[in-house]
Amino acid sequence: MKRLIPTLVLVLLCIGGFWYASSKDFFKEKPPETPALVTVSKQDVTGYTIKNGDTVVEMAQKDGKWTMTKPSALPLNDYEPGAWVDSFTNAKKEKTVDANPSDLAQFGLAQPNQEFTVTLKDGTKHTLSVGDPVAVQGFYYAKFGSSPEVFQLAEMHVTSLAKQPLDFMEKSPVKLNYEAVRSIAVDYKGGKWTLTKAETDKKSYEANWKLGDQEVKGADASAYLDKVSFLTTDQPAKASAEVKGLDQPDLRLEVKEADAEGKETAALYTGKLDGANVWIAKQGDAWAFSVPAASVQELADLPKTKAAEGAAAGDAAAPAPAAPQDAAKEQK
């Protein structure tokens, strides 16, 4: 009997394994993946058009560089223009609704509210038209190119394609390479400070820095770099030549960086207060960015803010004064 015990254990393990695999559908044949609507090489794309209601965005690519031609030129970020092409080629139909409909209007496709068109170097155009939402939440009726087929398209694909001009725009007026920064000097409405890297051979977060004559640890210095880097806008940029008063700025921000050989270069940013915003432009750059004045004020006040936080932390850590002894006990 003892000889049969290992065999019985093995049989039980096999039965358990088979049951587990069956419960996880390991033996079921997986359905084939739905192919993409179209496959194009990003390098072959010369441009694309996004029609989203009354908004039309046109993008053009030449020599690997993207520009916005409609509704107007904007400074573009490095990621979104090319990522949009990936989103277009990743779009897949969920299922066919009608292979040859007699009336596209019932699907909102006679005059689609949304159309996304990619143009290739050889002049070929691929257009994805999106109509009304499907009764099942999370899907839209759609058709592709000249094919009459109407199919369901997942809402996530529509969302990734229906971009607005600001989605493509660079929103940060100041670009920092933290490890290359050697100093930052800020002067805004009387608030002035300079942060200088004292140990240039170390990583920014490991090095000691100087705030004026005060030593600052790398972890604390990162807060100053972050504050500069996180200056952002939610408004369209405009030509720096259109901003009046940049030659008599309210804000001066100078960033010095060093290359791999240690050669330093300085970039000067000037800003002009305009209501609740400050228009900031890099000297010699074509674009100016509208940043909330409150954010710029926080940057200028950062040394005071950090000092106050340090004082508050010190007070909290200090031991409470001893309670005075009872007068009667003292007399004894």
Q: How big is the Rg? A: 31 Å
Low-confidence stretches: 326-332
Number of strands: 17
Strand content: 25-35%
Total DSSP helices: 8
InterPro entries: DUF4340
Organism: Paenibacillus mucilaginosus 3016
Protein name: DUF4340 domain-containing protein
Pfam family, one: DUF4340
What is the topology?
Layout lengths: L3 H20 L21 E8 L2 E8 L2 E6 L9 H11 L2 E6 L15 E7 L4 E9 L5 E6 L5 E5 H7 L3 H4 L12 E8 L2 E7 L11 E3 L2 E3 L1 H12 L8 E2 L11 E8 L5 E11 L2 E6 L4 E6 H8 L1 H16 L9 H5 L1
Antiparallel strand pairs: 1-2, 1-5, 2-3, 4-8, 5-6, 6-7, 7-8, 9-10, 9-14, 10-11, 11-12, 13-17, 14-15, 15-16, 16-17
Pfam families: DUF4340 (PF14238)
InterPro entries: DUF4340
Protein name: DUF4340 domain-containing protein
Describe this structure in words.
The protein is an alpha+beta fold. It has 2 domains: 42-168, no CATH class; 181-311, no CATH class. Helices cover 25% and strands 33% of the residues. It is built from 8 helices and 17 strands. The protein has helices spanning 4-23, 80-90, 155-161, 165-168, 218-229, 293-300, 302-317, 327-331; strands at 45-52, 55-62, 65-70, 93-98, 114-120, 125-133, 139-144, 150-154, 181-188, 191-197, 209-211, 214-216, 238-239, 251-258, 264-274, 277-282, 287-292. A 9-stranded antiparallel sheet has the order 12-11-10-9-14-15-16-17-13. Strand 7 and strand 8 (150-154) form a beta hairpin. The longest helix has 20 residues, at 4-23. The protein is elongated and about 80 Å long. The termini are far apart. The model is unreliable at 326-332 (pLDDT under 50).
